[in-house]
Design brief:
This protein has 172 residues and is an alpha+beta fold. It folds into 2 domains: 97 residues, Hemagglutinin Ectodomain, Chain B (Alpha-Beta Complex); 59 residues, Roll (Nucleotide Exchange Factor Grpe, Chain A, domain 2), CATH 2.30.22. The strands form 2 sheets. The protein has a 3-stranded antiparallel β-sheet. A 3-stranded mixed β-sheet has the order 2-6-3, with no helix packed on it. Helix 2 packs antiparallel against helix 3.
């Protein structure tokens, strides 16, 4: 092949590639490296997001475990103040103080995302929110309607944490 033919094909007379071909090769190589870097950066961002999500879930699970231990105590205090308080103590200053403490506990719980749900009597039984602890027959109530609430239910950030314990009407 003559030097003229080599020039037309982009080769220099000594057999090496031309400057344009070298530039084109380097551009492709540069683009490959840039795309690899972008993929690695995206992978790292995804990993970081997944790690943050897992950390948040772990903290939430830990909090839920801790809160679940306190809910029965708070529920017993609520029942003591609402269902089992002797009539002669209802207006005592001591009971008013305990009621104030209970109110503060509920406000703290609400700030943490824990809320109680009450007043289930007369509502349809929902197995995702209620735990049936008994059945009774009341003639004028619909079947599977809550007739009594034994204890309140509690949610954590909108999800049921402790179902309300209820008694359900069951027609014969």
């Amino acid at each position: 092949m003559s030097d003229e033919e080599k020039k037309e094909e982009g080769q220099v007379p000594d057999g090496s590639i031309s400057l344009e071909q070298e530039i084109e090769r380097l551009k492709k190589e540069n683009e490959e490296y840039l795309n690899g870097w972008k993929r690695a950066k995206a992978d790292y961002a995804n990993l970081k997001n997944d790690q943050e999500k897992r950390s948040k879930e772990l903290v939430e699970f830990s909090c839920l475990s801790l809160f679940a231990q306190w809910v029965p105590i708070v529920e017993h205090l609520r029942q003591a103040l609402t269902k089992h308080l002797p009539k002669d103590l209802e207006n005592s200053e001591w009971v008013k103080g305990i009621e104030q403490i209970y109110k503060q506990i509920r406000e703290v719980m609400k700030g943490l995302g824990i809320e109680e749900f009450l007043d289930n009597t007369g509502k349809p039984f929902d197995p995702t929110r209620h735990e049936a602890v008994g059945q009774e027959q009341i003639g004028d109530s619909e079947d599977n309607t809550i007739t009594q609430e034994i204890s309140a239910g509690y949610t954590y950030k909108g999800r049921v944490m402790v179902p309300a314990k209820v008694i359900v009407n069951k027609k014969a």
